[in-house]
Amino acid sequence: MNARGLGSQLKDSIPVTELSASGPFESHDLLRKGFSCVKNELLPSHRLELSEKNFQLNQDKMNFSTLRNIQGLFAPLKLQMEFKAVQQVHEKLNNVTSRCQLKKKKERR
């Protein structure tokens, strides 16, 4: 070994950060990231997170149940049928307008 010693040999070598894997096949680095827990990835991290995620659905259920208690069984069913009918018409109109836009683009060429 020369007078410079082992430290200079390590300094001249490739940095360790370049040796770490990256990309879609990267392995989990326990020293930097800690242990991974599959449960935390699948379930919400906070108990209110699931409630917030389904807020609109829960709000609709509550409104339909209130409407059912006040006006009877027919009122929420009628609203749901009307909503589905409007959605179907809206989808058909979107298809027609997109077809018209495609025809106009072809005519311009």
UniProtKB/TrEMBL annotation:
Assigned keywords, A-Z: Chaperone
One BP term from GO: proteasome assembly
Family affiliation: Belongs to the POMP/UMP1 family.
GO cellular component: a single term: cytoplasm
Protein name, per record: Proteasome maturation protein
InterPro entries cross-referenced by the UniProt entry: Ump1 (IPR008012)
Superkingdom in the source lineage: Eukaryota
